[in-house]
Amino acid sequence: MKRNDISMNKPAIEISGLTRCYGKLEAVHGLNLKVRAGGCYGFFGRNGAGKTTTIKCLLNLLRPQSGTVRVFGLDPQKEEVAVKSRLAYVPDAVAFYPWMTVRDTLNYFASFRQHWNREIESDLLKRFGLNLGQKAASMSKGQKTQLALITAVCPEPELLVLDEPTSGLDPIVRREFIETVIGAYQSSDPENRTVFVSTHLISEFEGLIDRFTIIEQGRDLLTMDADGARDRFKKISARFAETPAKFDLTGALRVRHSGREVEILANGNSERLLAELRSHRPEDLRCEALSLEEIFVASKELSEKGL
Amino acid sequence: MTAMLFKIDFKSGKPVYLQLVDQIRYAAASGGLRAGEPLPSIRPLAEELRVNRNTIAKAYTELESQGVIETIPGKGCFLKNGNTPFTKSVRHKLLLAEIDEAVVTAHHLQVDRETFLGMVNERLDYFERKAAEQEPQS
Fold first, then answer.
1. What Cα–Cα distance (Å) separates residue A106 from each residue in A94, A147, A160, A181?
2. Predicted ipTM?
3. Contact state of A210 with B52 under an 8 Å Cβ cutoff
4. Helix/strand/coil for A92
5. What is the per-residue pLDDT across A196-213, written as a single tens digit (0 to 9) for each?
6. B10 vs A210: CB contact, 8 Å cut-off?
7. What CA–CA distance (Å, rounded) separates B108 from B97?
8. CB pair distance less than 8 Å for A207 and B108
9. The pTM is what?
10. Which DSSP category does A49 fall into?
């Protein structure tokens, strides 16, 4: 396909120096981001960090005040239709016309799309147990999110943008949601199916995400590969027979002493720190990777140390 | 072979695809997966483990380049028959890293040389027994 030949070399999303204010309040300030095609990219941040504002700029729901936003190499402001026909978006609060049934809603969404995979549609309706005759007005939050996911997956877009998709859902619906993104969405042509997910429920997406950016006060604080991050940031804990006199723990991000125990946050230097602790003959020594969620929680500390 | 045999541990600090590679090699060595048996296909395994499909694909590519599995187009991935195509010294090197890890752990846990070697022998016996039990009667 010609379309894919062109998009192969271009990142799915490229944002540089994005700034957007609401009145005097700066929601996004000089954000940089690059999402390669075919991966699953996590966009982590606290409430109010600027995640939704950034996503709205991708969809031309908001205009950047400065900086550039490119989706498939195109400017969403100038080529809105070309961009939107190649992506699908699931917002945090889903709203459908309350008088429409599930069937009506799906037909309505399909009418905007050049392509609609009926097979995926019926598979997912069955999987979620949605009743075609039910009106949106009487659907639960979980059911509305499931319906939104079907409307996003059936056009088989190149880019799936998810904004806090699983917040407020029960664990079973969340699990089904993520399995659907892994399974149904990427069922064909996975190299050209990109997922961009903004969330603060990070642990659920841990296995899905291969690269991520942490956004803090409108700026990109930390961007890393997930495997690389788990390899670099480690928590080491050691217990000694008696409180040792002195360690050389330079280079540790954080050191906590508590009686005979010491806990260290290592930043790519876990081997040296482990060797130092070993030389003091610990009774117990453990080293484990930080999860993406723990990296997120520690990210402020990380950024203050100039990472 | 089912996805039940696999367990991903994000806390290990080891890349997820390498964890899968190791576990499949382990399954092959312990008889959980026999020559000619198919590996789970990518999509259901990805859904079950809730990891990216690329991760599974990367693991299978790695296993293929190591000569552990082969891909038959349209049919899937299968455990290869016989020996890995590595030279003896490369195979030894691969094993050394794992042995070093165990030796270091033994040191921390104050397990002495004799006990450690005894345990190694015990495990070798265990795997031999297990492989013999799973050998098809012929």
1. 14, 8, 17, 18
2. 0.75
3. yes
4. coil
5. 999 888 888 898 999 999
6. no
7. 17
8. no
9. 0.82
10. S
